[in-house]
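BUG: 3D viewer hangs when loading the predicted structure for this chain

Environment: internal workstation, default settings.
Expected: structure renders.
Actual: progress bar stalls at 90%.

Input used:
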Amino acid sequence: MVSNAGNRWAVAAGTFVLWGLAAASAVYWGMKLSSNVGMGAIAPPAPNAPASDPAAIGRVLGATSSPTAAPVASLASRFALLGIVAEPDGGGAALISVDGKPPRPYRVGATVDEGLVLQSVQPKRASMGASMQAPASVSLDLPLRK
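Structure tokens produced before the viewer hung:
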């Protein structure tokens, strides 16, 4: 039987390296799983911060006049007109979104919001008011197509 001494040493060295890698892997994962570093790293909840007074902060920073009240949004800004079906006899429907909610279809004469009735629809405009006979208090236009 012919034996190659160099081949025998290569097999022994390869086996030694593989067992060394297996042992290193076992040590690594054992240390990783047994460490409690991740568990103790959770920070306690922050205490509630006291409410700040904008006027007092303004005085500290040198403001001489009191801040003005926030501008009141117009009634029309609460509504978005997304579509219209206008009939020749003055009837029809409008697709209106109220306060950013999903749009709903409203027929002429239907109550859109508290105190507002859809009075009329035209090809690119819808008018709303307190009642069908009252003057229009809100007029909505269709957005331009891109």
